[in-house]
């Protein structure tokens, strides 16, 4: 794999990143033409992981611009990364930037929740179109599954 990247399999929250070491971690070789998709709820550590990945792989040419963040795209549209009213425009821009990076042959990190199957499917279609590899990292889904179970229980109760 030419210009491959090593990727930490374990990840700690931002508070632990300064103490992060390679001891007890695994590596995965990724080709340059890879779209890394980060999937998980808000606050799960996806953006921290993306920044740490870039920091650890600068010697291999990885740059902060490798990260395409839906929050940053939202802020570019309306100056407020929390404004959910602009989601359509946000994700038009998000997918547009990803397509342009893949067209240029750049390793790209898609930083969004990607919790919905259709969001991940859209990224898979882009990956196939540009003949890229994909790598999905799922973050801290336990509490989401617990919330879904609670919602199901609540929906069933009279």
Report on this structure.
With 158 residues, the protein is an alpha/beta fold. Helices cover 41% and strands 15% of the residues. The protein contains 5 helices and 6 strands, in the order βββαβααβαβα. The strands form 2 sheets. A 4-stranded parallel sheet has the order 4-5-3-6, sandwiched between helices. Strands 1-2 form a two-stranded antiparallel ribbon. Residues 1-22 and 149-158 have low confidence and may be disordered.
SSE topology sketch:
Blueprint: E1 5-6, E2 29-30, E3 34-39, H1 46-56, E4 67-69, H2 70-78, H3 87-103, E5 108-111, H4 117-129, E6 133-138, H5 142-156
Parallel strand pairs: 3-5, 3-6, 4-5
Antiparallel strand pairs: 1-2
Percentage of residues in DSSP E strands:
5-15%
Strand order of the largest sheet: 4-5-3-6
Q: Quickly count the helices.
A: 5
Structural class designation: alpha/beta
Short key terms for the protein model shown above:
158 residues; Rossmann fold; two-stranded antiparallel ribbon; 6 strands; alpha/beta
Summary of the model, kept short:
With 158 residues, the protein is an alpha/beta fold. It has 5 helices and 6 strands, in the order βββαβααβαβα. It is globular and about 40 Å long.
């Amino acid at each position: 794999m030419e210009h491959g990247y090593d990727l930490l399999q374990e990840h700690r929250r931002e508070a632990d990143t300064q103490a992060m070491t390679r001891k007890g971690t695994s590596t995965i070789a990724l080709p340059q033409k890879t779209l890394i998709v980060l999937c998980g709820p808000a606050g799960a550590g996806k953006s921290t992981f993306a920044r740490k990945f870039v920091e650890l792989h600068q010697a291999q040419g990885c740059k902060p611009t490798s990260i395409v963040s839906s929050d940053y795209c939202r802020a570019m549209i309306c100056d407020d990364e929390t404004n959910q009213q602009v989601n359509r425009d946000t994700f038009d821009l998000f997918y547009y930037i990803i397509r342009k990076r893949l067209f240029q042959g750049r390793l790209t990190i898609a930083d969004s929740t990607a919790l919905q199957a259709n969001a991940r499917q859209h990224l898979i279609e882009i990956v196939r179109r540009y003949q890229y590899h994909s790598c999905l990292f799922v973050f801290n889904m336990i509490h989401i599954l617990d919330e879904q179970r609670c919602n199901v229980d609540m929906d069933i109760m009279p």
